[in-house]
Specification:
seven-stranded mixed β-sheet, 9 helices, single chain, Rossmann fold, 46% helix
Amino acid sequence: MSIDTATGNEAPAELSSKRVKDIFSHIANRYEKFNAISSFGAYKLWVAGMMKQAPISNNDDVLDIAGGTGEITFAVAKTKHPAHIQCTDLVPEMLEVAKAHYAAGAAGSVPVHFEVVDAQDIPYENNSYDTVTVAYGIRNMPQREQALSEMYRVLKPGGSLVCLEFSTPPNKVWRGLYHFYLNHLIPFWGGLITKDKKGFVYLSSSIKAFPDQEGLAKLMEQAGFVDVTWKNYTGGIAAVHVAKKPEAIN
């Protein structure tokens, strides 16, 4: 099924894909500044938590989906030192920022390659990666079931999907405060920093329309993943899910 990622309602995939390309191509050079200011630095704790949960060894070949400006790619490189990372994103302008960071030494000695990839149609062979990472990406994909199936397909048996995504605070009061922040302050900060308030109205809407922690876990299980777990950060504003591809595929 294809949805409008801003509402969760059924819609042609092209609607959301074009919107995402337009927004992120426009804000690519200011995306990192927005993340830092709008989250009050909390995003660093989320990424650190993701790295602690990620079962990545120094022999692994890692595929980073929706890699954007390279934040997760370079965090993996610095903390896990894998054999190789393939950093991919739908938006070329985001990857250009990542490439500049890589040229400046952001990955240390870990080799990284970059490619424009639609995660709903991954152009890599079956069973080719030890780990797939994705942060803030699945929420922007109109064909989420297809994307998760593709991530499952390219993982080696026994490999892991590690996903950081905005989620739903379980506490009602905290959730209400968070939704106020999404409705009013995210568009404000987005407009101030990137001059694209409309794009951040979309960001707010997409977060509220996205499945909660349990809902995302169910989508992963439907794609074939097992042993799906998650851990909340900042009271559930963000969550890291870890899911495994079975060792033996029947």
